[in-house]
Amino acid sequence: MAFSVLHLFGLYLVVQPFCVAAAAADQTANISLGSSLTASDNSKSWHSPSGEFAFGFRRIGDQDLFLLAIWYDKIPEKTIVWYANGDNPAPKGSKVELTKDGHFRLTSPRKEEIWSQPVISGVANYAAMLDSGNFVLSNQNSSAPLWQSFKDPRDTILPTQVLEIGEKLSSRQTATNYSKGQFQLQFKQAGTLELYLIALPTEQAYSSYYISKTSDAADPMNSGYQLAFNESGQVNVVLRNGNIVTLSNKTASPSRDYYFRATLDSDGLFTQYAHSKSPKNGNWTPWISLWSIPENICSDSTGNEGGGPCGYNHYKKTTFLVVNSYCRLDANTRPICECVPGFSPLDPEYKLRGCKQDRINSCEPQDVYVIRELQSTFWPTSVNYEDLRGLSEDNCSRNCLDDCNCVVAVIFDGGCKKKKLPLSNGKVDWNMYGKALVKVPKSADAFENPASRDSSAEKKDQKTLVLVGVLLLGSSVFLNFLFVAAIALLIFYTYRKTHGVITSTSSIMDGNLRAFTYKELEEATDGFREQLGRGAFGTVYKGIISSISSTNYVAIKKLDKVAQQGEKEFKAEASAIAKTHHKNLVRLLGFCDEGENKLLVYEFMSNGTLASFLFGISRPDWNKRIQIAFGIARGLMYLHEECSTQIIHCDIKPPNILLDDSFTARISDFGLAKLLLSDQTLTHTVIRGTRGYVAPEWFRNTPVTAKVDVYSYGVMLLEIICCRRSLEMERENEEEVILTDWVYDCYTQRRLNKMIEDDEEARNDMKRLERLVMVAIWCIQEDPSLRPTMKKVTQMLEGVVDVSVPPSPSPFSSIC
Predict the structure, then answer these.
(1) CA 9 to chain centre
(2) Which has the minimum average pLDDT: 232-236, 238-242, 532-536?
């Protein structure tokens, strides 16, 4: 009896959409036999009763080609949710017709068939566009449609739509190319929803990069048999026993005010979207992403063949391997395929096609090349031609520079692995500690480095002038004197023109920085129009520095009118930064020193500040946060212990940590810190820093050391862990206002999970979480002598040394 009830329940789920379809068909003017639509700019459409959906032709871009499609018709985007002829666009003048004999087909102006509905049992009497977004062919004598778009899906499913076992979605090639893409979603016989790639133009499937946990081999009744998208916007797997597993973890509320769709996007993510049914304050908002799987397609994709969004791809009817690229996630966790440094896209319009080497390496002296680093970037399935165990990073770099065949070496698992080209299935994986070292010609590196480019151009000009001078030196001493004088003047003029040097150049030129005039920087910022941020010493603006070969974004810091102390700090900053180079520090490109106009030109960081990354609407990826914390620690260790003159930052906080395009942490504003002489390790100074991050010794008129940065780092490490600010006065629970006190109480009461309640990734990594919290508590000790150095902090973070149980940092405590 129970078996029959379960099957009746399943039958209801299957038949119910058909009944809705039939009922809805009665509410609209049916599309009768002999009706047709013609592909043109003013083509008519067949609408659902509510007018929310339309069926007809949509022009593809600016071509005279059309897609037979279904779309949302009441929103500006006219978003397409189904299409018939993605691989074979219809030319202008094509016709779709429900013929007199009950067939539904699309033909070209020459009457050639472009598409027709699959074979159906029976003859259609009419068609209808339903309010559910389902287009049906029906017979008045049948309760179920003979054919329906819901049972012939493309890349999208809609509310009330169901995917049965064996049914699948296929992605497009790109957002604007509706040809069949490389990704598929299918409900498998085992009861799992799976995402995988296929080897186009065949249907051969590669290994899955996502599998739902809805299979039970021991009891098939606990396994799934349908993917159902309900009207409230939830994506569910229905089990054979009638239970439901909800995959989507959020939806828009109230659901009646939103349209929903779930789409297998061209980048391989299955994403649930919502769109308001009406404008807000007179303005339409775009589709918003509510949920997607997998969480990290770059690291979740495995396998030697077709693995991941930067694996095999289909392009212009051929199959090929996308090589010399790697997959990374953007700020919205969408995958991006990037070319390895020294490589460029084969097709700039379609980066998934792969990358070609800009210049083939040859056996030239190693000083012709430089090493570019890619943090946590790996090609695990690419062949190593040499694996040097126990080799340090510096020695690995030198070894690669000396090796004619080496283009990429990967530091990982205690070894230096030199890779063969082509590189395939590359990924940025923050779960793995290591980096890729890429050897590129200096000329290629200079393209991205204005300072080195200008320097190279200057040297080239000087060499050319000297050569000309040597050739022209003549027979008489007088002529030689004239030539030498002319060449010297010409070199001086060329140098001034190349660098834009102003008359009163400061001694900061010793740092090989580019000197700008105030007028140049005013033009570069369009009159200091776009402000990026403001600090204690000035305002930062976005600018553009152009040269013959490229255009580069920069960040230009305009210092306010400051007292004598401020002017000294400006010169200290420029001098220090000129001698300070590290991958976790923001690089200074140039300066302007014209009287009261003092400006600094930095490289531009595309992903903004750590503050905006941490304290935004959504919680960032756990492993990415940890890698950022590690990077900041390494940068501070360099400032404290590896510079020729020790530098104390004095204002470590999230707004002073910038993120580059690979989300590598870069410490900024360290040049504004007090620069210590080599024989001076302690100093008394005025209070500096920002509330919440300031070490206690600032208030005690006691000597200040590099341990003030350690304290600030500890506070910031807790912010990175918890994704909340160190002081939040608006907290309802007073015990949680001060982050450091609250965390220590949570630690002592063994309730670390309270700190990361809704962070699933962190909850699955409790051992590392506890170690990080212990390190942070050591850093925030009130007694500076108890705080570790940044070198030891880095070693503890990386697990090189053990972390002992920390004492209470403060006599004050709160209750967790």
Answers:
(1) 44
(2) 532-536
Q: pTM score > 0.85 for this model? A: no
List, by residue range, all CATH 3.30.200.20 domains of the chain. 450-603
CA distance 21 to 678: 81
Residue 599, strand partner residues = 558, 592
Which of 155, 265, 454, 651 is catalytic? The answer is 651
List, in sequence order, every residue forming a beta bridge with 604; answer none if it has no partner.
none
Q: Decide: 444 and 456 in contact? Cβ < 8 Å.
A: no
Distance, in Å, from the CA atom of 734 to the CA atom of 687, rounded to the nearest integer, reads 27
Name the E strands within 258-400: 258-264, 270-276, 288-293, 312-315, 318-321, 325-329, 335-339, 343-345, 355-357, 369-375, 377-378, 384-389
Contact by Cβ (8 Å): 590, 514: yes
Kindly list the distances between the CA atom of residue 130 and the CA atoms of 46, 52, 134, 137, in Å, as whole numbers in the listed order.
10, 9, 5, 11
Residue 491 in tokens? 């070199």
DSSP string, 629-653: HHHHHHHHHIIIIISSS-B--S--S
DSSP track, 300-321: H--SSSS-STTSEEEETTEEEE
- The CATH number of the structural domain formed by 610-797 is 1.10.510.10
Name the β-bridge partners of 727.
738
Which pLDDT band holds residue 685 (cuts at 50, 70, 90)? Answer: very low
Closest CA to 442 of 457, 464, 426, 423: 457
Q: Which two tokens stand for residue 458?
A: 């200057």
User: What are 54-113's pLDDT values in tens digits?
Assistant: 999 999 988 889 999 999 999 999 999 999 999 999 999 999 999 998 889 999 999 999
Q: How many Å apart are CA 511 and CA 516, to the nearest integer?
A: 14
**Residue 352 token pair:** 């998934």
- For the chain, residues classed under CATH 2.90.10.10 are 19-152, 154-294
Tell me if residue 265 is catalytic. Answer: no
Could you give the CA distance from residue 647 to residue 642 in angstroms, rounded to a whole number? Answer: 10
Check: CB of residue 283 under 8 Å from CB of residue 304.
no
Domain at 19-152: CATH architecture: Orthogonal Prism (2.90)
DSSP assigned state of 283: B
Q: What CA–CA distance (Å, rounded) separates 667 from 631?
A: 9
CATH for 366-438 is 3.50.4
Sign, CA dihedral 398-403-406-411, equals negative
Q: Which CATH class is domain 450-603?
A: alpha beta
Best CA proximity match to 415, nearest among 439, 431, 435, 438: 435
Q: What angle do CA 716, 719, 721 make, to 5 degrees?
A: 115
